[in-house]
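Two quick folds needed for the group meeting slides. Do the first one here.
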Amino acid sequence: MVEFFMFTLFHRYLQGAYQEGLGRPCWIIGTFPSILIREAAGTLQRDRDVDYFYGSVQNRFWAILVQLYKEQTGDHAFSLSRGWQNRKAIEERRALLAALRLGISDVYEEVQSEGGSSDGDLCNPRISPYLPAIFQHPETIALAATSLYAARIIHKALLAEGYFPLPQAQNRQQRCYHRTGLEKTMTLVTLPSPSPRNRKSLTQLIGEYRERLSHYIKT
């Protein structure tokens, strides 16, 4: 009989990213970093993975943001370094988010997993305590979910905080208003997953991110 070991994983990037991102108009929000699951399972590529959000070398998230940054600035030589113990690689990603005026977070602060990193593999999740503060900050105007699954969790969290969807959603963008009045609105943007499980090409992903985030990213 095969026995499976269930890992309990805590999201160690959340607090720092929350503190850095406050005041930025748009937040990129996923579910839970697959790289932390891979770390627990002992399957890291230490020379290529990065100890940060979307840190797997196979995930295309940072390649997308690098291209958007190049288009915004004209700096076509811009690139990011890699390596698990490479502090510079983390700082470069934090600086890129700041340059694009993007916050970054996830819906879960703790999960259990047997080693699988897809959304369906996450068990007994605990919602991030930072979501309400992100929603309530006066500068936050958009939440960009990096999967349909994350978008559903964010939608439920918005409802719990008193936000209600406006009748029409266009181009994967759902406008929500707060129960206190229309002066506080939020846009929930659903982005395609940058995971290698998504069969869309990098070019397709860049095009969809550009289209849906262009209103919010300015350098």
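Then this one, please, same format:
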Amino acid sequence: MPATIYDIAREAGVSSSTVARVLRGDTKGDRKDSAERAARIRQIADNLGYRPNLRARAFSEQRTKGIGLLYTDDAWVFEGVNDKVLQGLVRELRKHDHHLLLVPVDAGGDWEELLLGGHVDGCVTFQPLPDAVRDGLRNAALPCVMLGDNSDPEMPHIVVDDVTGSYSAARHLIALGHRRIGLYVHKTVKPHCSIQERFQGFETAMTEEGLEPNFWHCAEDEMIAVLTRGGARPTGLICYSDLESTLIGHAMWQYGLKIPNDLSLIGFNDKFATKYMTPPLTTVGFDANKIGTLGAEMIIRSLTGESSKAAPAITSVNVKTQLIVRGSTAAPPRES
């Protein structure tokens, strides 16, 4: 039979209630529970192979230990860097004995039963939510944290510092001598705060030097037509993501143009094995795992009531970006 808290209590010579408090990390206010005793109780639990009964704990605490990931489209969950965000999120939730449930909130889903029927304690999302869902969360008093999005001012959020990231990318190209520089977003990219913020950083860097902040939101064939035309074509291009950079780099090769000799190329996200491309891609990177980790910490704090007047709840966190310079950027062609 599996070990119980009563077995641990007998071995440690303490009450079962003391064991329960130690194992859930709640030893505040109990002067008899020294750090040494708590450590000994945990060691005995490990030696006996104790495994907590999460279902019983959830019942006694009147919590499900479930966190719902709300989404309207599968792409919001699996595209871009969100897989890395999920890794950090799930890993941190597990440390706190919580688990993640996928909750589609499209028109035909049963999200109301899942959210309002007590199946989750809180929620996270990658995207702006429909009004009906936001109203449901508010009415049910369910906390929700946005991951990588800050479009809802009422929700706490963890976001990438996209402004600084695109600013540093543009400054890098300017320092190399480029003057005709563009920012490219593929037409399939869904509306998102990161588009505006990456343009903001790009525009600031360009206008500081009196340069035109060229912006394209189109299909790759339209972008390729701009890059391969004669005359005053762009010599430097910052892409919304590494995927766009891969498409553009391949197209340049097909047209007999070389990266970075004919076009300096910068991506964003540091994904898709960018350092193994030919040439290795200069890109803006950030710790996507950290977004998930911080998001999990934020939602757990909201559930456990750790915030106070002395230490108010953190509602906004920016994850730093870093320009990773590789082989896809160089000085512009001489005739430029």
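Slide caption for protein two: Residues 253 and 328 are 13 Å apart (CA to CA).
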